[in-house]
Specification:
single chain, alpha/beta, OB fold (Dihydrolipoamide Acetyltransferase, E2P), Rossmann fold, seven-stranded parallel beta sheet, five-stranded mixed β-barrel, 17 helices, 38% helix, 19% strand, disordered N terminus, disordered C terminus
Length: 496
Amino acid sequence: MRRQQVARVAQKSLDTNVTYLTGVGPARADALRKLGIFTARELFLHIPHRYEDASTVAPIAKLRIGDDATIIGTVVSKGVLPTRRGLRVFQAVVQDASGLIEASWPGQPFLDRTIKKGDMLLLTGPVRFFHGRQLVPREFVNLGTEESGTSGGRVLSVYPATEGLSFKIIRQLIDKHLEEYLPLYVEHLPDWLLQLAGVPSLPEALRLVHRPTSIAEAERGRARLAFEELLSVHILQARAKSLAREQRRGTAMTNRRELTSKLKQVLPFELTGAQMRAVREIVADMCSDRRMHRLLQGDVGSGKTVVALFAAMLAIENGFQVAVMAPTELLAEQHARTFEKLLAPLGILPVLITGSLGAKARRAAATQLASTEPVLVVGTHALVQDSTEFAKLGLVVVDEQHRFGVEQRNALGKKGARPDTLLMSATPIPRSLALTLYGDLDVSILDERPPGRQPVTTARRAEKSREKVLQFVEAQVELGRQVYIVLPLIDESEKV
């Protein structure tokens, strides 16, 4: 047995399986695997998802009715009580050095099995009067025994946990092995870069995120880990972009300035500086021998559609077909009307293809696409169907690109021989973040609003304001305005 222990120490590395760590048996190892933790390295990279600062904890004796407070106290008694309405309520009397208070969890009698007398609890919630002062926890953390609950200083690290593995067990495991394994971490970023970014070394950052003495220390450690992650992503994306450019051969177009000059003349407004800059960048891409793969990002009303129209005119004056794909029929029809109005003086009539298009109109559109004549097509997902074929597709424009899956965007691009691609997004993100998120794309950002456009108001509301938000929505609808409510998918899918 002693020989096995010596062998384990000698073989210690960050890739050591968690089953070799003291305090990890088969059951805990299985629970750790559910969290994606298989090695010591992954254990120490399991970062707290929040911190509780004991310096902000209120003494129980100073709590007043109506306060919303956070307290830490030890359970001195507990039990489940029935109510007149048949609801079972778990109650615990919690005590700190200043006094005691009753905590009440209506409808949660099962807590009687998990909260034990002597456990230290961190409780957050409103203080009300019900047969005396009572705190109704909105959230709580069971710190375990007083000894385990107070370890780690005045800042408590709260880890993502799973069934059979509480956050405090994870904290105990990390506390037990952190100093033992930290020397195995080798800093691979140069000192000058760490100083430039103002972040600590990797070993120090891990110590700060797991054992902070203040919230500021924890944030400093997290900033170091986030910096390295973003740097890694950026380097990989830059390399991918470089390789893609080498392999992304396309057709070099000629800037004839025929349709593009006419379009500029018939526009009822002047282009902003940002629009002109974006047009120049797009024209340079399309006139090079490499396929354009560019993201045009700008807030609603910044003029992305007009910029895309200049790209379309360049492709058409070079004899190519253009496909503009929108996520909804409503938006596709809106684009078609806008294009028709602006391009009528140029003698260009856009073709609309949607899922609700009649058989006769669909056959007419198919005939136009089958010819080699340049044409501007606007449509929805119908453009990627097998029945929609292009004879000479030279430019693909995808509006609200985040609404389409990768497969859908690629399917449209495959309908031509190396067409240029322009993706448009209204997601308001900083340029530096856009370059990180879309590292495989070149990015043009419209950061100016055309004269006369109303500013967009962005507001953030808390959950408690939900009713007021719904009332505001109802009022806007009654005024004849439109309201869009965007909800996240339950399951992420690139096909949606």
